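Could you join me in thinking about how sequence relates to backbone shape in a protein? Would you write everything just below, so we can both look at the same thing?
***
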Amino acid sequence: MKKKPVLQNLTAIVIVSTFNQVYAIDFSTAKQNVFDYNYAEAEFVDYDAGDSGFKLTGSFDLKSNAGIIGHFATASNYTELGFGGDYHAKFDVLPNADYLFYGGFERGEFSFDGIFADYTYDDSGFFFGGGVRSQLMEQLEVDGEISYHSFFDGDIRLTGRVLYKLGEHLDLKAQLDLEDNDRFSIGVRYYY
């Protein structure tokens, strides 16, 4: 497969760019967030491996710049559950953007129907990452993230996300995750 070298090169570029941006941040100058971090999402997910299903995600602020996060995804032969925490804030580096850093624990399970027997493979691990949420126009948000997930032999994930504001509390969302099992999702985000 030629996907691996391309993904590795893109990952290296994003990591170097992210380190340069993080180095430029003075964490003592964190300002009020540009975005709201109290939301719930429902999405249809299409996996590269041929499966499709749905995903539920939630975020809740415990303090103005820190919160808890969680997700649940399921498809015909895969289930994933994760939870953790995040830190998010606006810095002077980018005017209409928030930086976010997160980490947590996740568990996944694959089920396969074999010729002579059925197989189940499950694993648990941690995840951590960072990214930027950026407001390009009043109705349009574009996000980018890089994260590492240790379960199932470990994987680096690049995420691109676009949200279009449908109303005060509702966004239309599209997301692409590049990793071993790439996935595309489309759904809605509701702010509460």
The two ends are 43 Å apart (CA to CA). Strands lie at 39-47, 52-63, 66-75, 78-89, 97-113, 118-137, 140-149, 155-165, 170-178, 183-191. The chain has a mean pLDDT of 87.
